[in-house]
Design brief:
Elements: H1 2-25, H2 33-46, H3 52-55, E1 68-75, E2 92-102, E3 133-137, E4 145-146, E5 161-173, H4 174-177, E6 186-196, E7 210-212, E8 217-220, E9 234-236, E10 241-244, E11 258-260, E12 265-268, E13 282-284, E14 289-290, E15 307-309, E16 331-333, E17 340-341, H5 346-350, E18 356-358, E19 363-366, E20 380-382, E21 387-391, E22 404-405, E23 411-413, H6 426-429, H7 453-468
Parallel strand pairs: 2-3, 3-5, 4-5, 5-6, 6-7, 6-8, 7-9, 8-10, 9-11, 10-12, 11-13, 12-14, 13-15, 15-16, 16-18, 17-19, 18-20, 19-21, 20-22, 21-23
Antiparallel strand pairs: 1-2
Length: 477
């Protein structure tokens, strides 16, 4: 009994000793001292007020600020020693920095905080040969910082993600920051001071899955070379100063899920080649200068579309009957487009998942289709500033409430019996009079509330941002 009772203790001691020896013999390699020193210098350039070396005195691959990530690599030794004999050395294990993320992220996960005097230390682009991700968020907001020119350097051989978000003081050309990034998957430069043309060299980044360069100062045309990015899933060039035509070759991006060219100066005709984007879910071409060609009929042949925004382009014409195959659409923005004629009842019949419909500031006439009141989603329908007339369908009362916007339609009225709670809708309906039961077809408006186009534009932008926000970093995994 004594032997059997003591055996587990001896066995436990043996296993503990064995595990300790294995841990000692397989300790993770330390970060190279030169790479560690470079990282400290980069941290001090981001925020010199923080005593980085005091807070993190040990190896930065074992203990580092959030946002600093290491990876461990196995490097095969040369097969022959210097004297020509066969090497018996085991593979060499090394540690290297693979991710650098700077700037506030959230209350729960904050990267090394930047300061108003943050700068970019050139060591970022020379000392981390294994870097896969470089991320700056709200780091360069006051003191001007030049975009680094790494086009002729060896930086970025392993880089997969290059992200600069909300850095208005970061200025320079886009061509300088695109280096030898043969493995780059994500290029996200949003809300910076980057100017100049989009270089043709972007077409050489054949592994690219996302190109987002929105809210900068970019000018010139949309380059034809973008068509070479066959793996591209997100193309967002919005809120710049791009002009000219949209190349027909954009239709060759067959994997594209999101195309956002809004708020530029693009003109001509919306190319019919976009019908080839059969995977496309989000299309925003709003607030450009596309000509008087009407709503593109090819939209009806893109059944995966979930959101489409064309507002602010004077396309003119009628709203076409193209909705039968588009039952998955949740957002439509057709504001301020010079549209005429009636609102098709088929929109309410087929678009049962619609959450936002913007038809305001057009020249639409006729009645409001009752079918729009049977949509499933808790939605917003904006029909302001048109020439609509007749009685507002009772089907709107139970769902739409304040989200039904009808101001600026002099011929509309409401039935008092149908709208028993009319008072709470007064603001959104524009203080419409009750319909005259003896003359329902000739309603009267006692007070008109004007709405300028800028207010309409803001409504359009906020609505599409809510619907399309999930796309912003869907490739971050």
């Amino acid at each position: 009994m004594a032997i059997s009772s003591s055996f587990p203790i001896f066995g436990l001691l043996f296993l503990t000793t064995l595990m300790s020896s294995l841990v000692i013999s397989h300790q993770q390699p330390l970060l190279d001292s030169a790479e560690q020193d470079s990282l400290f210098q980069v941290l001090y350039s981001i925020n010199s007020a923080i005593p980085w070396r005091t807070l993190f005195p040990d190896d930065l691959c074992l203990s580092a600020p959030h946002g600093i990530v290491c990876e461990y690599f196995t490097e095969e030794q040369p097969p022959l020693t210097p004297n020509g004999s066969v090497s018996t050395q085991p593979p060499l294990e090394t540690a290297h920095i693979s991710e650098l993320s700077f700037g506030f992220v959230s209350d729960y996960t904050s990267n090394p905080p930047c300061s108003p005097n943050s700068t970019i230390n050139p060591l970022v682009f020379t000392s981390f040969k294994f870097l896969r991700k470089l991320f700056f968020y709200k780091c360069f907001t006051e003191m001007p910082v030049s975009v680094p020119d790494v086009s002729s350097s060896s930086f970025g051989a392993n880089l997969e993600e290059l992200v600069f978000i909300e850095n208005p003081a970061l200025v320079g050309s886009l061509s300088g920051i695109i280096g030898n990034f043969t493995n780059l998957r994500r290029l996200v430069l949003t809300g910076n001071g980057i100017y100049g043309n989009i270089p043709d060299g972007v077409g050489s980044l054949v592994n690219m899955e996302e190109v987002t360069v929105s809210r900068n100062q970019l000018s010139g045309g949309v380059p034809f070379s973008l068509a070479k990015l066959k793996k591209l899933r997100v193309l967002d060039l919005s809120q710049n100063y791009l002009d000219g035509y949209v190349p027909l070759s954009v239709g060759n991006l067959s994997r594209l899920l999101k195309l956002d060219l809004s708020h530029n100066r693009l003109s001509g005709k919306i190319p019919e080649s976009l019908v080839s984007l059969q995977s496309l879910e989000f299309l925003d071409l709003s607030f450009n200068s596309f000509g008087n060609y009407g709503v593109p009929l090819f939209l009806g042949e893109m059944p995966r579309l979930k959101e489409v925004y064309l507002s602010g382009n004077l396309l003119g014409g009628h709203i076409p009957e193209i909705w039968e195959k588009l039952g998955g659409i949740s957002g439509i923005g057709f504001s301020d487009m010079g549209l005429v004629g009636n609102i098709p009842a088929s929109m309410g019949v087929h678009l049962r998942n619609l959450c936002y419909l913007g038809l305001d500031n057009n020249k639409l006439e006729g009645t409001v289709p009752e079918e729009l009141g049977f949509l499933k989603c808790g939605y917003e329908i904006n029909l302001e500033n048109n020439n609509l007339s007749g009685k507002i369908p009772v089907t709107f009362t139970s769902k739409v409430a304040e989200k039904l916007k009808l101001k600026g339609n002099s011929g509309l009225c409401v039935d008092g019996g149908d709208f028993s709670g009319f008072g709470k809708f007064e603001g959104s309906l524009g203080k419409l009079k009750l319909c005259n039961k003896s003359d329902i077809s000739s309603p009267v408006l006692v007070q008109e509330v004007s709405l300028d186009s800028s207010s309409s534009s803001q409504t359009q932008i906020s609505s599409r941002m809510m619907l399309g926000f999930g796309f912003l970093f869907f490739l971050s995994c």
